[in-house]
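Let's do one together. I've listed all components of the complex below, 360 residues spread over two lines.
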Amino acid sequence: MSSHLTSQVWLRKFRFFSFLCLALSILSVSLPRLSFAQVDTFEFETQEQQKRFRSLSDELRCPMCQNTSLSGSTGGVAEDLRREVHRMIMEGMSDEQIEQFMYERYGDFIFYKPRLKPETILLWFGPLLFFLIGAIVLVNIWRKAKRMDAEPVVVTGDSKSRLDALFAEHGRSKAVAKNSNE
Amino acid sequence: MNRSLAFLPVAAFVILALVMWRGLYLDSKELPSMLIDKPMPAFDLTTVDGTSVTNDSLPSEPFLLNVWGSYCLPCLVEHPTFMRLSESGEIPIVGVNYRDQKALALNWLEENGNPYAFSILDEPGRFGIDLGVYGAPETYLVDSKGVIRYRHVSVLDETVWREVFEPAIAELRAEEGE
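Okay, and this is what the predicted structure of the assembly comes out as:
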């Protein structure tokens, strides 16, 4: 009796634990940047400015450190660029102007989302291209399979007599193969 | 079905293999400079000795622009090459003292020797941003009109000098036609 109870408790614990794991993994995927944010002491006049600063320093990439955003990097150049972003926001520049400023100095690398232009078309639409190729191949295979199912199998001459012999040997009726005989 | 289609997977494999083969030898850390064939950004700053400098102070012949700092260990590695170049007078070298402190910079030059015609003081790293610098050392080749022609990221040692800079400078000088 008691062992039965314990196993139930264990089951409940297990369920709770797996739910916790799932919740944590969803959380960690959806909030990856929060845990890395650098503490800056920039001052803003409005909440809007602060929000723009945050989203810009999340979307711009630190040129020195390969795969960290400006907001997540302790690198010297990232510190300088955060300061520049802050200055430009306070001077009333738009997001597009700030992005252009960064682009002119650091190129496409600075953006986590590269701009759409001839050099980046493959980057943007490559996955779609591969998906389409895969879909076309799959549809072709399906169609072929369907056609093969629908088409009567025509057996003649030597093959037919061998087939008949096999059917006879295994005691099956010849009628099965009959309709494919026409 | 068309028989030649059977070779499609093979062709796709070959193309993919070639692309990836090339990818193996690309250095993702070396970013292309946005300033190639563009004039050097305008500046009105001082040198580490306190003299004021602008674009007009730059040499009127091809020169090297070397981004350095006293904190930067690789800069010490390439330093002997710059000392040799300045002693032989092969090409003028202008320094950019990047994200450093004036006193430390002066001390470093005192201790290791000064190969630079002058060193632009860029304590806040603001001029570095205009140049698209992302860390010392970086070395730019600039032509006599002040247009940036080439950027090298990281150490410029004798090998890089011989294999990259010497030919590039010879080409530039030939192009400018004495």
